[in-house]
Write a structure and sequence with these properties.
With 523 residues, the chain is an alpha/beta fold. The chain has 21 helices and 8 strands. The strands form 3 sheets. Strands 3-4-6-8 form a 4-stranded mixed beta sheet, with no helix packed on it. Helix 4 packs across helix 12.
Length: 523
Amino acid sequence: MSTGVRKNTGFASITKDLPAGLVVFLVALPLCLGISLASGAPLFAGLITGIVGGLVVSWLSGSQLSVSGPAAGLTVIVLNGIETLQTYEAFLLAVVLAGALQLVLGFLKAGVIGLYFPSSVIRGMLAAIGLILILKQIPHFLGADDDFFGSLYFLQADGNNTFSGITKALSGINTGAFIVGLVSLAILLLWDTKPFKKVKLFKFVPGALVVVLASVGINAIFLAYYPELAITSSHLVNLPIISSAQDLGNELRLPDFSSFTNPAVYVVAFTIAIVASLETLLSVEAVDKLDPHKRRTPTNRELKAQGVGNMLSGILGGLPMTAVIVRSSANIVAGGETKLSSFIHGVFLLLSVLFMAGFLNQVPLSALAAVLLVVGFKLTKPTLFKSQFKLGSEQFIPFLVTILAILFTDLLVGICIGLAVGIFYILKANYKSPYFYHKEEQKDKDIIRIKLSEHVSFLNKASIVLTLEHLPDNHHVIIDGENSAYIDYDVLEAIQEFKQTAHERNITVEILDVPEVQALNVH
């Protein structure tokens, strides 16, 4: 199956990728800083990781829409790793080794594991991320929480949890920050209405940029005329100021290569490689489902790209990275078309470090919270829950369990719980050979007939997807479900996606007795 489209590629998509890249930058900036703080690493480390993810991994990756950078799911591993190895420099060596291991996994073609996660679990992950963004940003939107970069986990280090944090925030609203948040949210909602979309200027200028400029302007008015409403520094972006090469050198840290003989380094490296690879594969699978063009990411290439990215990040003093679903989702929602948008976000991160720190340190965090609230809502729209419910209990229950498990634990634990529930439903069904493959040679065009078996479960998805991807070009393909009593939704979705893109390889597809399904769309 093709991994790209024949339109809006390269620099021809700049009118969509530039605004999307700016939105992703505004989302990524506080997350890069926050994950550094939550991980016990130098503040600059998260920015290095985001810059490497944007400038380097975006081009090495085969994904058009995923965005790589420091991941909240790795914070505990980083925190424990630094503590175990006693120095940050020794931990950086573990990051470099983890990247090398990911590179090996890519060459060993370990990326296929991403195909073994049900779509109900992937969609549950997306919905949970959306809900977490909304719930976690409410205190910052209200200006009631100084710790903008708090943990994404349900239970927090300060003894609060997600819901008690919101309750506490309601009793300590910062009026100035709340006003900025409301104005920012209103701008973003208006920017997404039809009258605004009809104006060409508004199409090119992203609402998030207007929000940033407006929020700085509003706070400037507060400072000049209403000092009691002025937003204090604890509620503003806080970037390190780089005014010289010496300042930049002071922020950079290098790996301690003398720690090669420490066995604990290899344990930490192995842990980072496995968890980061799993989170990456889950993220790109989710991104592929959100992609309006239904492009598929080459997973083995993705592991190699992440491996190179982690090696470079570790050498420069950065944190371990993954493909990150929050930033990737923001990219898609903002209208990103190609990997250029991820690269642009990396450019903005680099410029922010070198030249824009003074201005960005004036941006109220409540304005950035408004951006994340909108992104979160678009990931967890009520229509998503309704459509999953209509698919039946086999799809809805794993979907719902995944959401609840992620909300009350963390991303990876929640996914594992949702996967276990999904597997339970799968094992209730009979597992048989999924299809019969037959090739017929004719004068005008060769015909390939794929006759599906009586029962096609999710366990058959990987083999069917791989078969469709490796079909020869310039053929007529018949997918026949006449004898099938049951075809799993994930398999139906894979067949539908193949049908939508087969023309790019001059393959004509004929579907017999296979029901059509509606592909996931967040727009």
